[in-house]
């Protein structure tokens, strides 16, 4: 919206001159109807009492009274003769029409009959409402003087004319000057509007580019923005990472849909922040599956090392991760890596996706699915790349049956020289393809089941995700409930504690639970 101000000086001067010219003739100024033609010129038609003798409709007669001074509304004899002060009041109403570009009292949600009745019988005193920015303050002040309730308080037309001359600093203003001023103001406002819209466009463009760069590699996004085709590209050697959550179906069965969304959002936010430290590209996430590649879209020689070190870091993060609604349930990550050739390309128009194709993708996925919880499963191709790089701790797993590939010799990645972050202790391979439901402890169980405080403190204080020996905090703080043997396998300890926990669920009182717990310890 561009605000344009009419040439008030020209309009006011013409109206005042017309009124001064008619000063000597007694009349009632019913109203001066103003209209703007296509040339932006204002014409005025003055109506006197004798010129509207044929007006018979009551509604039209009431409308005419909107320009009438209050003292004339109260005395019909004065209204027939007309007064100079009444004309000044009508002039003030006309100024309101010009300033707000609307009918008299148009800003009030009242009918003409209600307005006339309130003007005729105050209090409260009713007048048009004009905002300060609608016209120069001096002009608004003159307009309000013309509305004065007492007729003797209103200025005459000579005084009004003199005040407007002072407002114009004594200079004469013609319609041509006014037109140029309007055009100049229109141009300035238009330039300001264009500048504001351009800034808004730049902000939205940056947001769009940021979103596009998150969905696609920068090189691909740049081509799409320029309208250039994105041809499929072949990469001779890349390393692909796949991972998923062991027992995700079991966790989902004990979670609401919103809790599952929160779990994945928290986990992937953590993973995304972690992989930013490495020269890799996140391809996609599908459910609980997480896919990352090294060596594309920008070719690098150390793609296997980047992916392997990143996998160790993500394994560390999964050991530390806590599920909001299941804080005592471990989140076990299963990881698979493979190195080979592949092709990349953009698929789709409505929602374009950067996808990888080739046997390397399938093999990496098989490395993950045939892997084990809290372990990094490698193909022989990735193992050879890491051996050349040096510094990685590898362990031969043995021949592994891989669907579609037959028997493959695969390996475990155990660590790296100089990588000092704690890694979770993996359970035995034969027990790592699912999640025991006894490991699921919901918040409701914690609240509703009378568990001895020392058990909860043990569960809260003991770190279950370190490959170092666990500290026997329960034995030190509560010797009466000390464990007979502390195993360094966190999964074993967790299963043992939770089996006690599940048996305590039938206890009805705190004393009964404590007594039953003591019996378990002596078994």
TrEMBL record:
Membrane topology of this protein: Single-pass type I membrane protein
Boundaries of every Guanylate cyclase domain copy: 239-368
Coiled-coil annotated residue ranges, if any: 176-207
Record Pfam families: Guanylate_cyc, HNOBA, PK_Tyr_Ser-Thr
Keywords: cGMP biosynthesis, Coiled coil, Glycoprotein, Lyase, Membrane, Nucleotide-binding, Signal, Transmembrane, Transmembrane helix
UniProt-listed SUPFAM superfamilies: Nucleotide cyclase, Protein kinase-like (PK-like)
Any one GO cellular component localisation term in the record: plasma membrane
Localization terms from the record: Membrane
GO molecular function terms attached to this record: adenylate cyclase activity; ATP binding; guanylate cyclase activity; peptide receptor activity; protein kinase activity
Keyword Glycosyltransferase in annotation: no
Top-level taxon in the UniProt lineage: Eukaryota
Residue ranges occupied by any Protein kinase domain in the UniProt entry: 1-164
EC number(s) reported in the record: 4.6.1.2
Biological process, per Gene Ontology: intracellular signal transduction; receptor guanylyl cyclase signaling pathway
Catalytic activity reported: GTP = 3',5'-cyclic GMP + diphosphate
Similarity section: Belongs to the adenylyl cyclase class-4/guanylyl cyclase family.
Name of the featured protein: Guanylate cyclase
Organism annotation: Henosepilachna vigintioctopunctata
């Amino acid at each position: 919206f561009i605000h344009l101000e009419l040439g008030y000086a020209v309009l006011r001067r013409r109206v005042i001159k017309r009124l001064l010219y008619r000063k000597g003739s007694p009349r009632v100024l019913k109203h001066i109807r103003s209209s703007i033609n296509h040339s932006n010129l204002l014409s005025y038609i003055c109506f006197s009492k004798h010129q509207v003798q044929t007006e018979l409709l009551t509604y039209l007669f009431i409308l005419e009274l909107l320009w009438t001074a209050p003292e004339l509304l109260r005395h019909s004899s004065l209204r027939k003769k007309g007064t100079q002060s009444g004309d000044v009041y009508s002039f003030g109403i006309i100024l309101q029409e010009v300033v707000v570009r609307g009918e008299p009292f148009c800003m009030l949600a009242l009918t003409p009959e209600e307005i006339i009745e309130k003007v005729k019988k105050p209090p409260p005193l009713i007048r048009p409402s004009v905002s300060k920015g609608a016209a120069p303050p001096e002009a608004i002040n003159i307009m309000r003087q013309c509305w004065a309730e007492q007729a003797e308080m209103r200025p005459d037309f000579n005084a009004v004319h003199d005040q407007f001359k002072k407002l114009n600093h004594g200079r004469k203003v013609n319609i041509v000057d006014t037109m140029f001023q309007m055009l100049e103001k229109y141009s300035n406002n238009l330039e300001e509007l264009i500048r504001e819209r351009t800034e808004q466009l730049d902000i939205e463009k940056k947001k769009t580019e940021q979103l596009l760069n998150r969905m696609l590699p920068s090189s691909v996004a740049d081509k799409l923005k320029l309208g250039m085709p994105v041809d499929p590209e072949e990469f001779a050697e890349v390393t692909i990472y796949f991972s998923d959550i062991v027992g995700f179906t079991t966790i989902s069965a004990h979670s609401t849909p919103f809790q599952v969304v929160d779990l994945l959002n928290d986990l992937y936010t953590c993973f995304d922040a972690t992989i930013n430290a490495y020269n890799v590209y996140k391809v996609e996430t599908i459910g609980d599956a997480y896919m990352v590649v090294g060596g594309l879209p920008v070719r690098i020689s150390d793609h296997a090392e980047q992916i392997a070190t990143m996998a160790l870091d993500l394994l560390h993060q999964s050991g530390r991760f806590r599920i909001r609604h299941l804080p005592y349930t471990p989140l076990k990550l299963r990881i698979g890596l493979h190195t080979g050739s592949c092709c990349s390309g953009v698929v789709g128009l409505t929602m374009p996706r950067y996808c990888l194709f080739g046997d390397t993708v399938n093999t990496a996925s098989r490395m993950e699915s045939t892997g084990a919880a809290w372990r990094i499963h490698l193909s022989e191709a990735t193992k050879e790349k890491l051996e050349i790089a040096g510094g990685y701790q590898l362990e031969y797993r043995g021949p592994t049956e891989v669907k579609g590939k037959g028997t493959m010799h695969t390996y475990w990645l155990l660590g790296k020289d100089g990588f000092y972050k704690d890694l979770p202790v993996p359970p035995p391979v034969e027990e790592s393809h699912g999640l025991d439901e006894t490991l699921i402890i919901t918040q409701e169980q914690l609240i509703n089941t009378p568990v001895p405080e020392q058990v909860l403190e043990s569960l809260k204080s003991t770190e279950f995700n370190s490959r170092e020996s666990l500290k026997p905090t329960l034995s030190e703080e509560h010797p009466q409930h000390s464990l007979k043997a502390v195993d360094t396998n966190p999964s074993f300890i967790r299963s043992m504690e939770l089996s006690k926990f599940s048996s305590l669920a039938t206890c009805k009182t705190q004393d009964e639970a404590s007594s039953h717990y003591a019996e378990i310890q002596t078994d």
